[in-house]
Design goal:
Belongs to the class-III pyridoxal-phosphate-dependent aminotransferase family. With 462 residues, this protein is α/β, with parallel strands linked by helices. Helix content is 39%, strand content 15%. A seven-stranded mixed β-sheet has the order 4-10-9-8-7-5-6, with helices on both faces. Strand 2 and strand 3 form a beta hairpin. The structure holds 4'-deoxy-4'-aminopyridoxal-5'-phosphate.
């Protein structure tokens, strides 16, 4: 039929034009005005790179949506998915299946404390939805507290818990969510000037929020261990331990969302390890299998799991613990251990990315702050280093966002795929990044930052 013409190019591969025209006609894209986007047609990827149909290769400093922690097309994971597909593609969650048991065992072995039971989902959002349901049933309380600077997912409770502007159009999706300010010294809400002051005042603010809400009505506090899309905010020492203490004292379930921070991103298996805290529920996705097959989940403490020992947990998913997803998680976690991938992320962050990004900040007037750990960094771009005025206004779009659009375009022209959010570029390459790839990426960022510098008070004055 006419629909089938012009579908393939030389070598039987789909042609760029066919891919793009079918995409334009039939794919409804996330978070986008459908008429205003022009998605890159991607032909393939390997390791830290992916490429388009015109032979342009991009160093992936986004890890897609910060999920390809082991890079693109890791051969051990690809082979495991192929082997599992030949054996058993699907089996309902009510059965015990070898790869599901093994994935749960390996995850439980890595999670801190007694987080030893794993509820599988298809991604991070669903895991957040189930974590808050578990917390509400465990405590018998209705309310949930989360941070303004946060992202927790795109549905019902998860989008309401989200603090960033993606929440605004869906604010009434779920009742009982209250937001508070977490610590963020560079843009302190508490007029603090030291990490210790920021930490103490952020904890006092949380206590006050709880007192006004009525702590006995609060089921859970949910936090990203290291805040991801809302800015790569590493909490000051003592903050998470302080929240843990508050939750213990008031009978509140402490949920850590490690969807982005978990499985190597911070240079440790979980960001919670860096702060020596154990939540009651830990939410994961992304890095657990680098997103090769959709997978997420909740790790439950013994106490929360016990609530559902003699009473059924009222929730489930057709594809919970999907065999292909679990096989890919087993292979991912084994490869990460065998190849020292978590250690690599820690080393590259400490010896190459951290110092390299700080050197860029010293050279470029547009870089206000460098923050991060492991392969989880942000450059906070400003119009003026002294006033810290963001390079673009909060939640800017269209012409107001031009400085960031110029910066992103400069990155792509140079062959680096950036992760840009508001006035920040996040430096979030795979955990497998080599030293020479890191140096290449830093050089490309250096070049692209001149496009941001041009929009600073220094750049526009000169
Ligand atoms: N929590 C955090 C911290 C995330 O970064 C994300 C995804 N960016 C989610 C939850 C939602 O995960 P998913 O997109 O897999 O549903």
């Amino acid at each position: 039929t006419s629909k089938d013409t012009n579908r393939t190019g030389p070598g039987g591969q789909a042609s760029k034009e066919a891919v793009k025209s079918a995409d334009r006609a039939h794919v409804f894209h996330s978070w986008s005005a459908q008429g205003q986007i022009d998605p890159l047609a991607v032909a393939g990827g390997e390791g830290s790179y992916f490429w388009d149909y015109d032979g342009n290769r991009y160093l992936d400093f986004s890890s897609q949506l910060v999920n390809t922690n082991i890079g693109h097309q890791h051969p051990k994971v690809v082979a495991a998915i192929q082997r599992q597909a030949a054996r058993m593609c699907t089996m309902a969650p009510g059965f015990a299946v070898d790869v599901r048991s093994e994935a749960a065992r390996l995850i439980a072995e890595r999670t801190p404390g007694d987080l030893d039971k794993i509820f599988f989902t298809n991604g991070g959002t669903e895991a957040v939805e189930h974590a808050v349901r578990m917390a509400r049933l465990h405590t018998g309380r209705p309310k949930l507290l989360s941070a303004y600077r946060s992202y927790h997912g795109a549905t019902s409770a998860a989008i309401n818990l989200t603090g960033d502007p993606r929440r605004w159009p869906s604010d009434t999706a779920s009742a009982g969510v209250v937001h508070f300010f977490g610590p963020h010294l560079y843009r302190s809400h508490f007029h603090a000037t030291t990490e210790a002051e920021e930490c103490a005042r952020a904890l006092a603010h949380l206590e006050e929020t709880l007192a006004f809400e009525g702590p006995e009505s609060v089921a859970a506090i949910i936090l990203e261990t290291v805040v991801g899309t809302a800015g790569v905010l590493v909490p000051p020492p003592g903050y998470l331990a302080g929240v843990r203490e508050i939750c213990d004292r008031l009978g509140i379930v402490f949920i850590l969302d490690e969807v982005m921070a978990g499985f190597g991103r911070t240079g440790s298996w979980f960001a919670a390890d860096l702060f020596d805290v154990t939540p009651d529920l830990l939410v994961f996705a992304k890095g657990v299998n680098s997103g090769y097959v959709p997978l997420g989940g909740v790790a439950l403490s013994a106490a929360v799991a016990a609530t559902f020992d003699q009473r059924p947990y009222p929730g489930g998913l057709t594809y919970s613990g999907h065999p292909l997803a679990c096989a890919s998680a087993v292979a991912t976690l084994e490869a990460m251990a065998e190849e020292g991938i978590v250690e690599n992320a820690a080393r590259i962050g400490e010896t190459v990315l951290g110092p390299g990004l700080r050197a860029l900040a010293a050279r470029h007037p547009s870089v206000g702050e460098v923050r991060g750990v492991g392969v989880f960094w942000a450059l906070d771009l400003v119009r003026d280093q002294a006033t810290r005025e963001p390079l673009v206004p909060y939640n800017a779009s269209g012409a107001a966002n031009q400085p960031m659009a110029d910066f992103a375009a400069a990155c792509k022209r140079g062959g680096l795929w950036p992760f840009v959010n508001m006035n920040r570029t996040h430096v979030v390459p795979p955990c497998t990044l080599t030293e020479s790839e890191a140096k290449d990426g830093l050089a490309l960022l250096d070049d692209a930052l001149y496009a941001a510098d041009a929009h600073t008070t220094a750049g526009t004055a000169g």
